[in-house]
């Protein structure tokens, strides 16, 4: 390493006391930058590197097929290094000033097909108390697109069985009212009217979904339930509460829901967060078009 980068690494290690993992990332990123400079016969001293050189390096990484997240991280490491030199009065101007990281390509979320959702939701044995509870939880999760944290925080008063609505917990800033489909509503009615009392140990306990000890179900407990029914359904895909939420959004769009409505149901503050599901739908439409159009 160059003496300046060595001094910088010592600084973040001993003065800033950054984690070992962060130190290793900075070291690796700066070494790769220096290797690039050497391999491309860049004769500028590190203290004299121009913004053009750094932009050229970023373009080089892009041509090499590096992910935008990798390029962003390397720029962050280089920026931290030059901020250190600037604060030490070793340079007069930071060459990374006003340089923007490349936009991250949003990954299209994994989803289940309608058939896979049906297979998964059919697994709870509704001849048992546990199966009734699990069926109600899983049907509600897919019917509303709730986050798992929102689902497990629900209280009895958050469910309106007459109107078929769920109100997300007031602990969350994006409180919203979401309709519950008939299948999920019927499962909830069965659980609440006849079976929830079998889990109750304290009559004042008002959380909706309880474990055998009469306490609110935990995230770990819920994950075990998902894992169990995934295995039982013999579905080869990964299934998580988040994937069920993604599936909820994608299936709504596939069946004609508008993006703004899906944004409201999911509780997204910015519609760009919801837009990614439209990309999934567009992909499906492209496939349909190619199969159906005579000149495709």
TrEMBL record:
InterPro entries: CB (IPR044068), DNA_brk_join_enz (IPR011010), Integrase-like_cat_sf (IPR013762), Integrase_catalytic (IPR002104), Integrase_recombinase_N (IPR010998), Integrase_SAM-like_N (IPR004107), Recomb_XerD (IPR011932), Tyrosine_recombinase_XerC/XerD (IPR023009). It comes from the Bacteria. Site-specific tyrosine recombinase, which acts by catalyzing the cutting and rejoining of the recombining DNA molecules. The XerC-XerD complex is essential to convert dimers of the bacterial chromosome into monomers to permit their segregation at cell division. It also contributes to the segregational stability of plasmids. PANTHER family: PHAGE INTEGRASE-RELATED (PTHR30349), TYROSINE RECOMBINASE XERC (PTHR30349:SF81). Residues 1-86 form the Core-binding (CB) domain. Its main location: cytoplasm. HAMAP family: Recomb_XerC_XerD. Belongs to the 'phage' integrase family. XerC subfamily. The active site is at residues 245, 268, 277. The keyword DNA-binding applies. The lineage of its organism: Bacteria, Bacillati, Bacillota, Clostridia, Eubacteriales. This is Tyrosine recombinase XerC. Residues 107-290 form the Tyr recombinase domain. It is found in: Cytoplasm. One of its GO terms (cellular component) is cytoplasm.
């Amino acid at each position: 390493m160059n003496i300046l980068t060595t001094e910088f690494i010592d600084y973040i290690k001993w003065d800033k006391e950054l984690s070992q993992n962060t130190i290793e990332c900075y070291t690796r990123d700066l070494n790769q930058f220096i290797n690039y400079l050497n391999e491309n016969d860049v004769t500028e001293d590190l203290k004299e590197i121009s913004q053009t050189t750094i932009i050229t390096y970023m373009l080089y990484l892009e041509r090499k097929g590096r992910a935008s997240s990798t390029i962003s991280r390397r720029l962050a490491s280089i920026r931290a290094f030059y901020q250190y030199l600037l604060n030490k009065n070793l340079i007069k101007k930071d060459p990374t000033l006003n340089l923007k990281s490349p936009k991250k390509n949003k990954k299209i979320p994994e989803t289940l097909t309608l058939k896979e959702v049906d297979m998964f939701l059919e697994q709870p044995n509704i001849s048992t108390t546990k199966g009734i509870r699990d069926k109600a939880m899983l049907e509600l999760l897919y019917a509303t697109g709730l986050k798992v944290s929102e689902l497990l925080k629900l209280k009895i008063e958050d469910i309106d069985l007459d109107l078929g609505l769920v109100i997300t917990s007031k602990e969350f800033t994006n409180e919203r009212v979401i309709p519950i489909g008939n299948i999920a509503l019927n499962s909830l009615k069965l659980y609440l009217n006849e079976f929830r009392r079998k889990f109750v140990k304290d009559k004042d306990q008002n959380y909706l979904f309880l474990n055998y000890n009469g306490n609110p179900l935990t995230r770990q407990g819920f994950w075990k339930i998902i894992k169990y029914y995934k295995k039982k359904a013999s579905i080869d895909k990964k299934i998580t509460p988040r994937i069920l939420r993604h599936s909820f959004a994608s299936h709504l769009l596939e069946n004609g829901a508008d993006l703004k409505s899906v944004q409201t149901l999911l509780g997204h503050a910015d519609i760009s967060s919801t837009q990614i599901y439209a990309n999934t739908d567009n992909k499906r439409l492209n496939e349909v078009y190619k199969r159906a159009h005579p000149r495709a």
